[in-house]
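hey so i finally got around to running the thing on that chain from the lab meeting. sorry it took forever, my laptop kept dying and i had to restart like 3 times. anyway pasting the input first so we r on the same page abt which one it is
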Amino acid sequence: MRITSDMNMRMMSSALLRSQQEQHKIYRQMSTGRKVNLASDDPGAYEGIRNLRGDLARLQQYERNANMASHYLSMADQGMERTVAIIHRANELAVTAQDATLDPDTRKAVAEEVDQLLQSLLDTANSSEGGRFTFAGLRTDTKPFEVERDPDTGAITAVLYTGSTESRMVQTGPQIEAVTNLAGGSDAGEGGLFQTATRDLFDSLIALRDDLRESPSSSEASAAVGTQLKDDLDHVLAQASLNGARHEQVKVQTDVLREAQLTAKQSLDSLESVDMAEASMRLSQAETSYQAALYSTATMMRQVSLLNFI
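ok and heres what got predicted. didnt touch it at all, straight out
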């Protein structure tokens, strides 16, 4: 086959274009720090990178969910710590109330402290952060406990739970969900913290306060309330233990997620990141090839005469 000057020019133009494209590709890789910026750069690697990025995005979302769960469980932990302290102190006062030598004025003073503990327990039960009530179940935008008061004295006579009993769940893995809340009350079992089907922490304090105010000396009611408060304390501690176990599970899962993200990032880096030294060498080679192509083209053009077009 006869090679014409026109064919030579087209081949040289194609060589120049390929050389420019190669230089542009290397410049793009070095400026972005990524070997694969387009699917055409390396179809196989591009698909792997896309899958790894999808995996990494899911792992990061799971970690955000786990961090949110950990925060909510921490808020519940703090509330239960305050509740344990309140019920523990109330239990001590119940023991004091059983002292037959206690004079009426002292009993009234103790009753006032119990009333303050009742208000503190109510504040704890209605605690919130950022407008989200900790012990409201799924109704986090609604205050979970409402009170009834004596119209004459203003004293709390009853506390009613208006929150929900459902658990709020968040996904922390492909098939893993974490419970992020603890309902303040439950009338169908023992799942509530402050009120259950068989106990009411508020009623225990109300009963102790009223007995101290109304009875001039130790009564059987004080002893009964003391026993009830001990059971209440055991209940709160059991709920705190359950919440602590959930919190620990979330922490373990968070560590697992971070390790998985590290592995995914390392795999992504091996497919995607540019070796700058190697890229610089390739760029130098591409520039040399381009200069050689330019020289060859210029030489060929000088050799072209009018006879080549006849």
